[in-house]
Structure formats: C-alpha cells, structure tokens
Amino acid sequence: MNQVHIHLLITHLPIFGSMLGAFVLAYGIFSKSNQTKIAAYSLFTISSIGASIAYLTGEGAEERVEDLQGVVEATIKQHEEFAMFALISLIILGLISILGIFQTIKKPLLTKSIAFVILFISVISFGLVARTGYLGGQIRHTELNSTTTENPTQQEKVDDED
C-alpha cells in the first residue's frame, strides 16, 4: 500500500465523518443527550485526524498521478489549495470538539451553547471538505467536470446529422 492508496481511502473519512457528526450532534441537541453530543464530538475529532492524514499523503499521491495521461496540473493545484482550507477548518473542528467533550463532562450548563457553535463549524467544515473531495475527484474523473462533458443525446444527434 502506498500514499496514493492511503490518500484515496482516507479522504472519505472527513467528508462522511463531518456530515454524520453534524446529524448526530443535531440529534444530541434536540434530544438533550450529552452522551450523543460526546459521540458527535468524537466523530469530529476522528474526522480531523483523517483530514490530517489525507493532507499529509496528498503530496505523495500527486507525485504518482501528475504525469499520467489526462491529468491536468491546474486541477491538482486547485484541489491542493482548497484542501488547506478544509484541513484548517477540520483541525479547528477537532480541537473545539475535544474542548466540547471536556466542557460537556465538567460544566453541563454551557453544553448547549458550545454544541451550537460546534454544529455551525461542522457545517462549514463539511462544505469545505466536500468541495475539496469534488475537486480531487476531477483529477481522474473528468466526467465530473460539466464544462467538458457533452450530453450523449446531443452528441448522437450531431453524429446522425453528419
């Protein structure tokens, strides 16, 4: 297993972890369950670690794919630059989630306030990491780029006219 494999495997963790964690946290807020909130905070912390691993293996993955046919350097660069924003947001989310765990255990009076702050950060983080994943997918999945993909039925009509 090389850095490309690790990068591709781990990149899904921050995407789904931040999304699932947000749903779990929203349910924890709604049900007033501190245990559910702590479970969500744990998901966010794990997602933050996953984002760090994905970022650290990104350079090795880039080295392996940058010379492949069909890979555009600008697409890699865009993915890499956006990944930094996603990483920073997920690190903030992970750190504040650790704070949230301790806050929930030690001072339950502030639990609701910190839960809403963390939920807000998680939604922003999910948006950033989902966009990063989309940009990363465009590196090898050119069908994701709607500007270069033609509608097959339109192409068939053009072919039939010739």
Write a concise synopsis of the structure shown.
The protein has 162 residues and is mainly α. It is 83% helix and 0% strand.
- Beta content comes to under 5%
- Secondary structure tally, helices: 6
Structural class: mainly alpha
Radius of gyration: 20 Å
Low-pLDDT regions: none
User: Could you report the average pLDDT, rounded to the nearest whole number?
Assistant: 84
Q: Secondary-structure element sequence?
A: HHHHHH
Shape: elongated
Oligomeric nature of the chains: single chain
Helix content: over 70%
Largest sheet: none
Question: Can you describe this structure?
Answer:
By secondary structure, the protein is mostly helical. It has one domain (3-161). The protein is built from six helices and no strands. The longest helix has 34 residues, at 73-106.
List keywords for this structure.
83% helix, mainly alpha, 162 residues
Task: Set down the secondary structure blueprint.
Blueprint: H1 3-10, H2 12-31, H3 34-65, H4 73-106, H5 111-140, H6 152-161
Helix pairs in contact: 1-3, 2-3, 2-5, 3-4, 3-5, 4-5
